[in-house]
């Protein structure tokens, strides 16, 4: 399967930062993996213009479960698609924390994304307290079951395992710990959507991935790429991660 290097710019970036996209595209005209950048909603359309004709795909960071209506401040999957997005990140831990998003809401958003023709990148992961309590697999299994929509396939679903305590902290689980959780996700996904589809779903690791640790993480079984926050903002850093895939 073709791996995926996905960048999450979070609430960072204005038009001036699009030079990074141009630099990334020039440095990696034919990458060995799929490359995705998810800027703030304000930049989706402009980034899609800059990325047109390159290997870089563009995604949103969230969408509403409805396609239109009285939902001030929200955007729909159809709107993202029209703006040039082909993917959308859903259920990122910052959305679950900042906006109280539940598994059921993430599942509804993912269903809307699939219906619109977007690929849903569904994020799951335990907090530090949950890991310390030995509940990692329990939490990840529950989030996976509750967040994956009906109709998910290898073509329209990506799962990102992101331990909350590893995001933006410089800390990561050990390599065996990452491999264990990814194997568990593959097994649970098989039960949810069947062996044929589950085998092709890309399972990304996310949480403090950087050029210096990317190679060893990507070598793990069932790690099919990365969701990268801080290190996706600069073409040089993200490019080095792309090269490691
Ligand atoms: C993320 O935001 O999804 C993430 C993994 O962030 P960072 O790479 O900065 O830890």
Structure commentary:
The protein has 245 residues and is α/β, with parallel strands linked by helices. It has one domain (4-244): Aldolase class I (TIM Barrel, Alpha-Beta Barrel), CATH 3.20.20.70. It contains eleven helices and eight strands. The protein has helices at residues 18-27, 44-51, 77-83, 93-98, 103-116, 128-132, 136-147, 175-193, 195-198, 211-218, 235-244, and strands at 4-8, 34-38, 56-60, 87-90, 119-124, 157-161, 202-206, 225-228. An eight-stranded parallel β-barrel has the order 1-2-3-4-5-6-7-8, surrounded by eight helices. Helix 3 (77-83) links the parallel strand 3 (56-60) and strand 4. Helix 1 (18-27) packs parallel to helix 2, helix 5 (103-116) crosses helix 7 (136-147) and helix 10 runs parallel beside helix 11 (235-244). The mean pLDDT is 98. The structure holds phosphoenolpyruvate. Phosphoenolpyruvate binds at residues 8, 10, 162, 167-168, 206-209, 227-231. Phosphoenolpyruvate is lined by residues 8, 10, 162, 167-168, 206-209, 227-231. Pfam families: TIM. It is an enzyme of class 5 (isomerase). Its EC number is 5.3.1.1. Involved in the gluconeogenesis. Catalyzes stereospecifically the conversion of dihydroxyacetone phosphate (DHAP) to D-glyceraldehyde-3-phosphate (G3P). It catalyses: D-glyceraldehyde 3-phosphate = dihydroxyacetone phosphate; L-erythrulose 1-phosphate = D-erythrulose 4-phosphate.
């Amino acid at each position: 399967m073709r791996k995926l290097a996905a960048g999450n710019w979070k609430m960072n970036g204005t038009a001036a930062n699009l030079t990074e996209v141009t630099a990334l595209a020039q440095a990696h005209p034919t990458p060995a993996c799929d490359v995705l950048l998810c800027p703030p909603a304000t930049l989706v359309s402009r980034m899609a213009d800059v990325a047109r004709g390159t290997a870089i795909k563009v995604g949103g960071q969230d969408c509403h479960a409805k396609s239109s209506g009285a939902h001030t401040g929200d955007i729909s999957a159809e709107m993202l698609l029209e703006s040039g997005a082909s993917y959308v990140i859903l259920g990122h831990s910052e959305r679950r924390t900042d906006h109280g998003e539940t598994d059921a809401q993430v599942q509804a958003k993912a269903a809307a994304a699939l219906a619109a023709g977007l690929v849903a990148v569904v994020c799951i992961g335990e907090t530090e307290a949950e890991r310390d309590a030995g509940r990692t697999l329990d939490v990840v299994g529950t989030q996976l079951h509750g967040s994956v929509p009906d109709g998910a396939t290898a073509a329209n679903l990506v799962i990102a395992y992101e331990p909350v305590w590893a995001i933006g902290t410089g800390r990561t689980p050990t390599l065996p710990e990452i491999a264990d959780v990814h194997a568990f996700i593959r097994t649970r996904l098989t039960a949810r959507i069947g062996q044929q589809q589950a085998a092709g779903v890309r399972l990304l690791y996310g949480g403090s991935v950087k050029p210096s640790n990317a190679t060893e993480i990507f070598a793990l079984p069932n790690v099919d790429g990365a969701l990268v926050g801080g290190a996706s903002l600069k073409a040089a850093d993200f490019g080095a991660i792309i090269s490691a895939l």
